[in-house]
Amino acid sequence: MMIHLAMATGFLLILIGFYGALSNRNLLRMIVAFTIADSGVNLVIVAIGYMPGRTAPILDATVKAGDAAARVIDPVPQALVLTAIVIGVGVTALMLAYAYKLYEKKRSLDIAKFTELRG
Amino acid sequence: MVKRLLALLLLAAIGGIFTTLVLGYMPDAELNNTARYYADHTAADIGSANLVTAIVITYRGLDTLGEVTVLFLAAAILGLVLARGRRQVQARRELTPVGELLTTGSRVLVPLIMLLGVYVFVNGHLTPGGGFQGGAVIASGVLLLLLTDPLRQFAHTLIAAVESLAGVFYVAIGLMGLFLAGGFLDNRFLPIGTLGALFSAGAIPIIYTLIGLKVGAEFSVMLSDLSDTEAL
Amino acid sequence: MSLLLTAMTLVLCIAMIVAAFVAILGKSLPIAILAAGLVSLVASVLFVILASPDVAMTEAAIGSGLSTFLFFFVLGRVRGGERDGEDEPGSEHG
Amino acid sequence: MQFDWMKIPYSLLTLFIVVNFGMILTAFIAKIAARVGRRNGIRIWQNYADLIKSYGSRSSITHGAMFYLAPVFRLTGGVGLLLFVPTIYGSSMFSNLSFAGDLILALYFVFFGTLGMALGAAESGHPHAAIGVSRGLSQVTTSELPLALAVYSVALQYHTLSVTAIVAAQQGGFEHWTLFTNPLAVAAAMLAFLGSMMRPPFDVVLAPQEIPIGPPTEYHSSYLALMQTNRAIYPIAKIVVYMNLFFGGAGNWPVFFLKVFLIYMVSVFVGVVFPRFRVEQSIRWFLIWAVPLGILSIMLV
Amino acid sequence: MPNALYLIVAALAASFVLGLLSPKRCGIAYAITLVTLAFMAWVSAGWLWAFVVGGAQPVEILTAGALPPYAINLRMGRAEAAMTLLINLTGLLSALYLKESLFKLGHRGMAVLLVAIMAFCGIVLTRDLFNLFVFFELAAISTAGLILLSEDDRALSAGFKYLIVSQFVSTFLLIGILFAYHATGTLNIDTMATSARLLQVGAQGFTLAFFLMFIALVTELKPFPANGWALDIYESAHPAYSAIFSAAAATASLYAVDKLLLIGGASWYPMASGIGILTFLAANLFALPQSNDRRLLGYSSVAQIGLILVVLGQRDLLGESTSFIAIGLLVSHAVAKAGLYWLSGLVQKRNLIDWAALRGHPFLVFAFITFVAMLTSLPPFPGFYAKWELVRMLAGGGRLALLALILVGALIEAGYLFRWFGYILKREPPTEAVSGEVHKLVPVFVAVLAGWALGYLWGDLSGTGRHNLLLALPLVFAVGFLLLDWLPAWVKNTLAITGMVAFFFLTYTEYDPLRLIFALIFLIGGAITLLASYDAHGRRIGFYPAAMLMVAGMVMLVRAKDSFEFFAAWELLTIGSYFLILRGKHSEPHALSYLLFSLGGAFLILAGFAIAAQGVAPFPISALGQVAPSLAPWVFVLLATGFMTKTAAIGLHIWLPGAHAEAETDVSPMVSGILLKAGLFGLFVLLMTMGKQQLYGIELTHVLLWIAAFTALLGNLMAVFQEDAKRLLAYSSIGQMGYALFGLALMNHLGWLMALMFVINHYIYKSMLFLSVGGVAKRTGTREMYRMGGLIRLMPLSFIAVLIGIIAVSGVPPLSGFGGRWIFYNAILASDYRMPMVIIFLAGPVAFLYLFRLIHSIFLGQLKDELRRVKEAPFWIVLPQMLYVGLLLAFALVPGLVLRRVDSYLNLFFPEGGLHWEGFEITSDYGYWNPVAIMIVVAVIFVSLFAWLLFVNRRAQKVKQFNIVFSAERPYRPETTHFAWNFFAPYRKALGFLVQPYATNFWGTLTDILHTAGDLARRLYDGNGQSYAFHFLVFVVVVFGMGL
Q1: What is the predicted ipTM?
Q2: pLDDT value at position B91?
Q3: Which domain, by its residues, includes C42?
Q4: Which of A90, E250, E410, E663 has a CA between 20 and 30 Å from the CA of residue E194?
């Protein structure tokens, strides 16, 4: 239940992000929308790895190495999300750099103004 | 309006795909084959208490190397892009001084924040957190400095050197794994030690330290590049 | 316990969705950026509930922290374009 | 292969007979035409007189090599055509040089003289010559078509291209003539014949200056003489082909003279009935009337 | 072998080290970059060598000391080695090319470039799905970075559009990967492929997850319509970056999709094929109206990748051959496209026409055409072998619709690429010169070299070494002339003639009588025609490689044993002749239409052979006779149409007049007198093997008969109305080919003999006539006949050649044309079809019209004032004409020398109805013919009469024209009354309606429609990044809908 809720929220965030990216012509707003979609993706992934009733994949006093397999949740999605988050921020930084340069060039952040290449 | 409607229609269709995925999803009752392997073998093979760290640094170390490279790229590109917009030292305008409180606070806080960052990545194999989180914390320390004293000249070359050296060493340690142990980024060319100890898990603490330094440096470069840039 | 967690999850989810809508529909760009950061921040809380402390830390530090600052830094440099592309009457672009 | 050298004098004999026959025939027909028009007309020996006169006069000019050679081409065409076809059926004496080739040779050799003549006329540089050639060639493309179809039909009918064999197949009574066994082909061929004789209504070709067949304005003296000779030979040679293909050939000279005369007369009569056609009119006329006949004859063989 | 991981490690280490350097040490940074890339290329090359030569086995590279699927592993195999080599070399050469640009950007820019190349290698090497994602992101970011750093300002918006789409893509990819992981419990590609098989059918989650991954990766291949962003990048980025995107990035993405399909299995193949073919067609169509060079190359790239995706999607059918085909197409594309982008950096302006600047640089032109030939899959490049295999197997598997679409797309592509080539050679060069820095030329040079080397390699891989075209002696001979092009023309001419004659004498024992005749015409005939080329001065760059390529193609055609050799030879002679034709001053559009018709025909032949073979390889030509009855008629139709394109049968003829007329003086006889025979040879072979075929109860040879008859008639008719002497001859060729085709289609002994007679005759007299007319045109400076006249006195030898020529063409005895007519009549008597004869009878006399016009308008009538000082044609142009006169007389006199053996050879096919040869007399079932007797009789009569005339008229002297008309005092006026223009006006009135340019209009309208469609449809790409995102989503939804 909880998982499905989180996952559905994640997907909803993705869709909201996409909608924002499709309906806003302001470059910065589009980038903001994409970060929301990124958060949604992360949420979905973490939800995939979650298993009800288990603990975080860290061995400590309560979770011994021997019975880890029965106690912890799947660590793989978490590892992947870590990577995804960092990549996401990298892409965001790059898009921001683009936005800056585009603004520098045309003094506008309206994507509809950058259509000199077409057809 | 037509565009919005079309967007909604398309997203509804894609939402349909997503809904199917959500409804078809059943959480596993047991760990799958891969996860089970990690749960069973990490302690013995890698010596890291934090399974996620073990995966991130060793099993999927190549991903992490790529991830670091992504930030490296972003920093490099940002640096290049903003190079032209960077304001000249002479042409600086006077900024209104920031409040005394913030300045003093930051002088106290920054070392603490830095220390916290180091702690986070050094203990990456034991507790939650690691190089990335620690790096981000360090960068936030830098950010604080930037906020309190926007005119502070950062030793760009120093940060860049830290970043590059960390990267080079990271690759070098990966290669040592290749030569001295079972493969590229194998952490076991150093002793694994006891599970839970600070100096354990082979090269993981070193790698995470390097990552932490590198990520911290990269974020710092980005932030300082941006803050040095002239407003348009 | 489980019920409590589920309830918390529900609240957090609703918070995220509301913040997300604010981010994409709101008039003000700075608020949108903040709202997006808030989505990340709430997500990181949810990650803790989902037994993923590593992810939670990363999301909080990088996703909601640093990237929000990046946005603000850039926003500060392109102040003039903040409202570009908003629907002025008669400029609807197909 | 052994060549029978006697064929040479025999061929020359044929040639001699045909030349004389041709001279007299053309004069005779001219006379008939004159009489129809209530005129006196030429004397029956007039052609001889003209010919001798022409040979007698000496020209001292030429317009160039092709101009010079054109009458030679022309006459070679006439003589060759005559000699490549057997004149008298069943007579090895008058089978001429038909061993060299069959019906197809005769059909295509017709063009030898025409081509040479056209070249010579063209070299004269007179625009009218070129116009005449243009018209003549245009007309010939469709006027020859029914003939080709008829020949094809006849060859299909008799399963041979050998003129001798075709004549042989028509022996034994006039009901065996192609005229009666394959009337459509003959009809088509005779229409083509009208066109090729350059008589009315298909004589627009000659209209400009009557150049291509030896106009007095350009060709004169011995050139003209050669062409006049050809004028005696060529129509006969052509009629011989028709006679052999469609009218049972000729077993001896009297029959030969009669048949040639009658066939010649056909073209004369038609010319009296029709007015002169323009080139495109005659092309359409051939396509509409003659060609379908030819096609029918092919289909029905 | 160095560990393949060094590919990644070296690049990363180097890029981190670059960061240490001070910004001022650009030289060192650049050196490090180059050395690193060279090292990476060396590693890949080493592996490739080990796999190909050393027979090494693929190696799994483990990381982290754990076995897959638990740790990420990489794999180095033959394909990986090849692809990484391709990527690294592209990177290395682009880096070299980018010298100034990189110096300007400094060390960080170089690091970005290194990371990009590393990421592409990583995509190829990795066997882990998520790792694949990471490398894709790295590739995307570094790509976007490189674009951001491009000099063109417009590149900025292109890069942002790219990032927008890649955000959508990576979202889908990530979700897909995670759900796939959840369903299978692994991220390892190979393990996942195994587990996916075990999943129960209807594992909805997995299928959807796979769909998301699939659609995301496929989008990296720039599928239609989700590819607007890619085109903007191609148009605006620095050409060296575009080279990387087009060659390296596409390579990596394709391989990633291929790996993904390993997981998805055969059920996803149709989707891949469908997306691929749609992209291939749409992109080629859109490229058609482009005038911007880089955008056009972008469309072409997109199309090529689409084609390769089709190949990947046909894996179920292609099986083992998939990689041979796909990699063959891929390397062709990559090398060529990288090369073209590098070239585009040398050209200063962006319109296609501005590429005319290349003209002054033979090497660059050669490079360009090498690349275009690679892209259009012409021999001897890898794409050719790949195309052959692909078509063969598609046809064998019955996937004919796909096959047809591929060929249509390929034809469109050839259309715009060769149109471009025409611009280069024929348009006014712009004032801006080509930039000639060495570091920019080296990459182009290497690409050219690589193209040829790959051609050799693919030939070697294509199975038996016998099929390696670059080992075929004739082709090697032709290619050799490329290296000798610096020699003066006369030396090359001597070499060429010697080579052709020598080759004939070395091989003449190997041909059967029929082929011997064709070999004779192609080699000895070609050598005689080449004598005329001694007239040319200077070096004549490009002429000899082209001419020898054509000759090589023709020789290989005659010698071909199986369908592959036959088709390869066909393509070779087509391109060789295209180059030759293109040399003419105004031949640009005509050469293009020639090439397009020829290639279209070649594709039909290709399809015909492939359908006939049903997958069998090698497929001997003789096996055409054993094609299954259900397929045979279709094969017949395809092959016959293909060959008839070459012989310019009516409807397919519109290329010929321009092509033959606009060609150079010594080229016209080659392409008319000699080249047309290749088509007839094909028809001979076709009819010899397949014989009569029926389709829906219609006798196909009967159809051919009708086509032939109309071709003869309309060809002749159109010749009548030409004012241009060479066009007249060209149309006459159409008519003559109609006759030859007619003979073949009669399907009896004499019909074939007649066709052969036409082959020989047409070679002799059309070569002769084209040379004469060419010589005249050279001297007078015009081809319009009405501007000439009266040249007989000034150019007597040319006149004699034309005179003999027209007598021969018209079929008037005693010359050899008559023999053709005689056999023709005998042949039709033996045939059952009577109606088409009517048409062909009509065609006969029409020939007189144009022939007379030819000789009259040029040589007779009045001399123009301005031509009074014209000299006889140059010696070397007259010499072959005189040889032809001799040949013609000899052939007229003793046709038996050549025909007799063929006649008995034809008994193999038609035992009935042959000729009897007795002494000089030739007898058929119907008639007889004695050429010697005819000649003697005619000559005797002619000579006697001539002597007589000379005797009676011996004192004749030449006088001026109109001497008589104006009583010897012609008033001199400069204007003349030469009656020549619109010579057959009355004829046009009567039959002109038959020669309305219906065919020209039809083909013109077809190309117009294509252009307009392309032009309208490309408005889809409105330049707005959000629209591109919409395109992507529409693409996803539509593909998903189709997949349901």
Answers
A1: 0.90
A2: 45
A3: 2-77
A4: E250
In sequence order, the β-bridge partners of residue A110 are: A26
**What H or E segment, with its residue span, contains residue E916?**
strand E916-918
Give a yes or no: residue C65 inside a domain. Answer: yes
In-domain check, residue C31: yes
Q: For residue E990, list chain D residues with Cβ-Cβ distance below 8 A.
A: 138, 279-280, 283-284
Task: Quick: pLDDT tens for B28-74.
Answer: 888 888 888 888 888 888 888 888 888 888 889 899 999 999 999 99
Which residues from chain B sit within 8 angstroms of residue E175, using beta carbons?
21
* Mean pLDDT taken over chain E: 91
Nearest residue, CB atoms, B52 vs list A18, A75, A91: A75
Please indicate, yes or no, if residue E808 is contained in any of the structural domains: yes
pTM across the whole model: 0.93
Helices (H), E462-531: 473-483, 489-507, 513-519, 526-531
One pLDDT digit (tens) per residue for chain B, 232 residues: 788 899 999 999 999 999 988 988 888 888 888 888 888 888 888 888 888 888 888 889 899 999 999 999 998 888 888 776 554 444 444 555 566 777 777 778 888 888 888 888 888 788 888 888 889 888 888 888 877 766 566 667 788 888 889 999 999 988 888 888 778 888 888 887 777 777 778 888 888 889 999 999 988 888 888 877 777 6
* Interface residues from chain A to E (CB-CB < 8 Å): 14, 18, 21-22, 25, 27, 30, 34, 37-38, 41, 44-45, 48, 76-77, 80, 83-84, 87, 90-91, 94-95, 97-99, 101-102, 105, 111-112, 114-119
Q: 10 Å Cβ neighbour count for E590?
A: 24
Would you state the structure tokens that stand for residue E69, as one six-digit string?
Answer: 């699927």
User: In terms of residue numbers, what domain contains E482?
Assistant: 472-943
Count of domains for chain E: 1
Q: For the segment A27-43, what is each residue's pLDDT rounded down to a tens digit?
A: 999 999 999 999 999 99
E962-970 contacts at long range (C-beta below 8 A, 24 or more positions apart): E962/D125, E962/D126, E963/D61, E963/D63, E964/D61, E964/D217, E964/D218, E965/D126, E965/D217
E1023/A115 Cβ within 8 A: yes
- % of chain E at pLDDT higher than 90: 66
Q: Is B179 on the interface with E (CB under 8 A)?
A: no
Q: Residue E428 is encoded by which pair of tokens?
A: 């006014």
Q: In this structure, is residue E280 part of a structural domain?
A: no
Domain A2-52+67-113: give its CATH architecture.
Orthogonal Bundle (1.10)
> Using the beta-carbon criterion (under 8 Å), do E19 and B25 form an inter-chain contact?
no
Is residue C93, in this structure, part of any structural domain at all? no
pLDDT of amino acid D2: 65
Of E848, E942, E953, the CB nearest to D59: E953
Domain ranges for chain A: 2-52+67-113
Total structural domains within chain C: 1
Where residue E24 falls among pLDDT bands split at 50, 70, 90? confident
Hey, which residues does B184 pair with through a beta bridge? E63
C-alpha span between D143 and E144 (Å, rounded): 77
C80 vs B contacts (CB less than 8 Å)? 232
What's the whole-number mean pLDDT along residues E672-685?
94
D202 near E CB under 8 A: no
Residues facing E292 on adjacent strands: E351
Tokens encoding E677: 């025979």
Give residue E201's Cα distance to chain centre. 47
> Among E109, B77, B227, C86, which Cα is nearest to A95's?
B77
Q: Is C85 left (phi over 0), alpha (psi -120 to 50) or beta?
A: left
CA distances, E599 to each of E522, E531, E557, E967, E993 (Å): 21, 30, 16, 62, 31
Does any CB of chain E come closer than 8 Å to the CB of residue B192? no
Nearest CA to E171 out of D29, A14, D10 is that of A14
